[in-house]
Amino acid sequence: MEFFRIHRTIPFMRHALLLNIISLVTFLLAVLFIVTRGFHLSIEFTGGTVMEVHYSQSAPVGDIRQAIDALGYTDFQVQNFGTSQDVMIRLPVRPGEDTASQSRTVLSALQAQSPDVQLRRVEFVGPQVGQELLHNGLMALLFVVVGIMIYLAIRFEWKLAASCAIANLHDVVIILGFFAFFQWEFSLSVLAGVLAVLGYSVNESVVVMDRIRENFRKQRKASVREIINASITQNISRTIITHGSTQMMVLSMFFFGGPTLHNFSLALTIGIWFGIYSSVFVAAALAMWMGIKREDLVRPVKKDGPEVELG
Question: What confidence score (pLDDT) does residue 134 get?
Fold first, then answer.
């Protein structure tokens, strides 16, 4: 399916060096921010008070957030739990306050809004649980990265595989760099977004590399730069359809999904745009600079007669 077809090849690799220098600087800055500033971890990782409240009708989630915000809390979470009448509230640890005093203060504020609200459960989640969640999340990220590396190694010749792997690492580190620099809250939903971006980005890179490999077999007299430019140009319509439809869905979550999905959709938005960029200007350019050539992808097979190329 194509919205349009570009008949003239666009010279994407003409500015590859400049754009990759910018990418390298951005990557190094992201690493610097991650190391020096760290992440603003949510209470899922740091621990805090968990409250479960029940309403006789659908819970006014927006009013609940306003009431808690008026108490001076900044890092808190409010979300429906099970049904539209049940709400789970997560509060960060406050110096000089224990779980009991926090729950009484918040419950009083909620009852001032809706006298029918009932406190069903309150408990303290220690930092040990948060550390376990963080460890499990990082292990999940590690397993996804290893799985992608194995997949790329099986699917492509090593130069194409290495280019895809570096491009995907580039995307993930830059997303994390954004969250470290702006100190956006890093929660389990953001970690899920990073994992989704990994799969999304590798898919885009694989499509571009697949077309490059195909064109090496078809365009026998074209240069490496011409083949890469042609391959990217041929994928433009598919890229617009795929990423445009995905971005519309992500933007709907960003604007209408509330605070719960805000940072998740933000991580996906950054990943989508950098995924497009890295697949075109990072992965493809690295493959070109690594010296990818037709002989790497189309190997001659010796028979009794002259050599025959597998295309």
Answer: 78
Residue where the block lists tokens 């445009």: 244
pLDDT at residue number 298: 66
Write out residues in the chain with pLDDT < 50, as ranges.
307-308, 310-311
Distances (CA, A) of 219 to 14, 45, 215, 227: 20, 53, 6, 7
Is 277:203 a contact under the CB 8 Å cutoff?
Answer: no
Measured CA to CA, the distance from residue 254 to residue 82 in angstroms comes to: 23
Rounded Cα–Cα distance for residues 213 and 114 (Å): 64
With vertex at residue 58, the alpha carbon angle to CA 52 and CA 60, rounded to the nearest 5 degrees, is 75
Whole-prediction pTM value? 0.80
Helix/strand/coil for 71: coil
How far, in Å, CA of 258 to CA of 239, rounded?
28
Helix 188-218, helix 127-155: angle, nearest 10: 10
Q: Is 303 helix (H, G, I), strand (E, B) or coil?
A: coil
Residues 197/170, Cβ–Cβ less than 8 Å: no
Per-residue pLDDT at 284: 92
DSSP secondary structure string for all residues of 115-150: TT-EEEEEEEE-HHHHHHHHHHHHHHHHHHHHHHHH
List pLDDT tens digits, range 114-140: 898 999 989 887 777 677 877 888 888
Confidence (pLDDT) at 141: 85
Tokens of 311: 């295309």
Burial letters 259-294, b for 16+ CB under 10 A, else e: eebbbbbbbbbbbbebbbbbbbbbbbbbbbeeebeb
Helix, strand or coil, per DSSP, at residue 166? helix
Which two three-digit tokens encode residue 42? Answer: 């949510």
Per-residue burial over 51-61, b if 16 or more Cβ lie within 10 Å, else e, is bbbbbeeebbb
3-state secondary structure of 243: helix
